[in-house]
Amino acid sequence: MAKKILILIAIIKGGISMRRLFPAFLFTLFIIFTFSTASFAAGGGVDLEAVPVDSHAWWFWPLILLVVTFVMGVVAVLAGVGGGVLFVPIISGFFPFHLDFVRGAGLLVALAGALAAGPGLLKLNLASLRLAIPVALIASTCAILGAMIGLALPTDVIQISLGATILGICILMLTVKKSEIPDVPQADKLASVLKIYGVYREESTGEKINWTVHRTPMGMGLFVLIGIMAGMFGLGAGWANVPVLNLLMGAPLKISVATSKFLLSITDTSAAWIYMNQGCVIPMMVVPSLVGIMLGSFVGVRVLKIAKPTFIRWMVIGILAFAGLKALSKGLGF
Question: How do the domains of the chain map onto residue ranges?
Answer without folding.
Answer: 33-41+58-332
